[in-house]
Structures are given as structure tokens and as C-alpha cells.
Amino acid sequence: MSRKLNFSAGPCAIPLEVLNEMQENMADFQGNGISLVEVSHRHKFYDDVHNSAIALMKELLNVPDNYSILFLGGGATLAFSMIPMNFLTAGKTADYVNSGTWAKKAISDAKKIGNVNVVYDGKDNKYSSLPDASSVTASNDSAYFHFTSNETIGGIQWKEWPKVGDVPLICDMSSDIMSREFDIEKFAMVYGGVQKNLGPAGAAFMIIRNDLLERSPDSLTAYLNYSIHAEKAAMYNTPPVFTIWGVKLFLEWVKRNGGISEMSRLADKKSGLIYDLIDSGDGFYRSPVDSAYRSTMNLVFRLPSEALEAQFVKEASAEGMMFLKGHRSVGGCRASLYNGVPVSSVETLVGFMKEFSKKNG
Ligand code: PMP
Questions:
Q1: Which of 66, 79, 109, 321 maximizes the CB count within 10 A of its CB?
Q2: Which domains are delineated in the chain?
Q3: Closest residue CA from atom 9 of ligand 1
């Protein structure tokens, strides 16, 4: 089998070892003569998978006991509305940073639930930069402060966390979770879709400090209430079992391969290969974002013309390098270098980029 080099922004590359493990166990789970996806989610087979996925998140991210870890359906998108429903208490304000497409969606949903204050809006710089971490301030009556650690489409990433004192910090880490070391105790909640750095699509992860869960109002219907999910250890209803199995295997792979510190080193190395080429080149490739906030996960770059960008994407694809087209809302090119993308794929891409600029520059 000849595998493509996958630079997709999500769902995206999953290590081949993980895919093979899923395939080998798909019809006959661990030699039990039955598939994991055809037994009850209350059966021991699934229970072990569920608890292992949660335990691995806890271990790899150093999550203390006063946090609950959940995997729920609905993606990060459902969290955009569940967060204000659960934590934006009456009479309070939710602070949001508008850093681009994903932050905007979170803001739009929160505004339908309660009072929202946008503390920073990057529209003047076309969402190509971020505010200084110490320059942002929360409202006096802030319920929480929400931001997006990595804008998957815009290609910008916070390098330091906003400094907002005791105000609960909530972060959408969909596209850089498990790729950088961070202190979870700085956050009241971290969440995101699993389909980038954790496994196949179908669930979102939530890590929520337990004191925040006390805010979930009883008036919420069951599925929308985070405290009910936490009480039932994310088993209130049938969980996305296939996805969570994939997450467990992906996290075991992360652990076998050196944990987050190694993922972080590799993310710097892989993104460095491309940014070095952009910075040291003759201007053929250009990064449209502030160099202080360039993402290590989603690298956006421009070529001298849209025609050349289209040709670049087409020729790369013909050579097996897939999904290098930028998001339709911003154009250009984008290479996503999640944990499942090996260094060798990036080296091949850099070689291709050099050749392409030589031929067309
Ligand atoms: N936030 C960010 C930063 C994302 O990249 C995405 C998906 N690309 C989402 C939220 C939405 O996630 P989901 O599709 O899981 O709802």
C-alpha cells in the first residue's frame, strides 16, 4: 500500500500503527471473538477502553484529581453553547478573545445565551496576530475568560496564556492539544474536538475543574449539563465508542513515543523546517501572520499569485502530498502538522517546496 502524505487540517493524519491496531482488532477485539463496536457500552470490554482513555489524558497532561475529564459527542461546536449554558451565570459577563474563525463561532453562540464582552478583536490585522498575554483584562463581573489557543484556519497560536488573575480561564485547544506542554492548573476548563491530535472524529474532550461544575444549573436538560456528565464519568448516555477507542490507542502511541514533551519537540522541529524555508528564501513563499504567533500546527503560507498557489496544490497532490489548500475563507496554502504527521513527510514537503520555487520563481 502506498500511503499519501496527509497535511489535512482535520480530520487528519493518524499514526499508521494506530490505524493498523484498529484494523487488527476491528472484527475480533483482543481475541474475544466479537467487535468492540457491537457490545454494550456498559460491558467490561468498553469500560476498560473508556477508563483507559480518561486515565491516559490525565497522566499525559498531568491533570490533578480536582478536574473531571469527559469525552462527549457534538464536537467542540456543541461546547460553544454548553459552556455559556453551564458557566455564564445570570448577571455576569463572559469575556471572549476574537482571534479568528473559531473564536468567532464560540462568541456568536455565547451571545445567544448571555452577556458577552469581546476583550480583543483582531479584525484590524485581519486575524493575523494576537494580543500580548499581559495586555488583556477581564470584566469586573467576569464569569469566565474564553480564548482559542490555536486558530486552525488563520494559523496563529498563543505562546503564553492570558493573564487574568482569578477569573476562570477556558480554552478551546482543539487544534494544539497534546502538542505542547502546559500547566492545566492555570485553566478552569480546556476542551476541543479529538479529531486532530487525539483520534478519529466523533467526540470532544473536556477537562473541567470541579468547582466550575457546581455552576451548572438544574434547569438544563440532561445532555446539556456538564455536571451530569461528570457525575456519570462521561457515561450518562451511550458514548461514541469507536472514537474513544481510537483516542485510547492514539494516546498509548503518544505515551510510547515520549509523551507531550516529545510531541512538542517534534512540533517545533516540523514547523521549523517550513518556517525556516519561508524565512530564508527569496520571498517566493510568504507567511501572512505575525511571526511572534505563528502556529506550530497549521502553517499558512502564500505564493506570489493565486494561480501559482493552485498549481502548487495540484502538483503536490499529484506527488502524494494531500490537502495543502488553505481554507476557502482565507485562500493560500496551509500545511497541518499534527502529531500523526511524521518528520519525514515534512522533509518531503520541504524538498518539493524548494523544487517548486526553483522552477516557478
Ligand atoms: N475549534 C477549533 C479551533 C477548531 O479547529 C474546530 C474544528 N476545526 C472547532 C473548534 C470545531 O470542532 P468540531 O468540528 O469538533 O465541532
A1: 79
A2: 5-15+259-360 (3.90.1150.10), 17-256 (3.40.640.10)
A3: 76
